[in-house]
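Renewal narrative, Specific Aim 1. Our central claim is that a sequence can be written position by position from structural information alone. The example that follows is taken directly from our test logs and has not been curated for this report. It begins with the structure tokens describing the chain, in the order in which they were read.
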């Protein structure tokens, strides 16, 4: 019964988001739309900075890998992490090989999206995080893959925890150009 209610709540939250227009001048081929249990988040992918990572995010979105995946690690004042469509707890990655680092000089600040990895700089695979605030300690050490262009208010509503009990989820993730 609780699972049914959770699914219904996710659907109710996602329906109003679908009607929302995408930001003007958005390159839809290089943006993902994340409909969450809290609302819609739109991320502009930085294929100019991290082309391999941007392509991976789009590939996984098109494969449905990110659908119904929880925000498993959400730290107040720092970031919200998601993208483990294998184990749903931050320990898994996709069937695709890990990616080599694509570091840049773009600073980690509120709304920046980065790729999660292990201590190996070349271990990013599927998981990513959205910054709540500045994170200068990450600068030049984690690949910046994008930035939130709409929905930071939604990111702010994501339930906190490490791990998160009864976490919010990415209900559906799509490449913006694929939305009909």
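The sequence written for that structure reads:
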């Amino acid at each position: 019964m609780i699972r049914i209610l959770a699914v219904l709540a996710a659907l109710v939250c996602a329906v109003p988001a679908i009607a929302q227009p995408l930001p003007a001048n958005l390159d839809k081929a290089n943006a993902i739309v994340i409909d969450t249990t809290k609302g819609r988040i739109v991320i502009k992918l930085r294929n100019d900075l991290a082309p391999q990572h941007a392509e991976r995010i789009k590939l996984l979105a098109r494969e449905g890998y990110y659908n119904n995946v929880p925000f498993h690690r959400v730290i107040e004042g720092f970031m919200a992490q998601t993208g483990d469509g294998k184990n749903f707890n931050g320990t898994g990655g996709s069937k695709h090989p890990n990616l080599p680092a694509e570091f840049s000089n773009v600073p980690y600040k509120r709304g920046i999206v980065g790729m999660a990895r292990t201590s190996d700089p070349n271990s990013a695979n599927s998981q990513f995080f959205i910054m709540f605030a500045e994170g200068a300690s990450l600068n030049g050490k984690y690949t910046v893959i994008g930035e939130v262009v709409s929905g930071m208010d939604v990111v702010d509503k994501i339930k906190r925890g490490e791990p998160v009990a009864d976490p919010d989820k990415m209900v559906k993730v799509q490449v913006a150009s694929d939305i009909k």
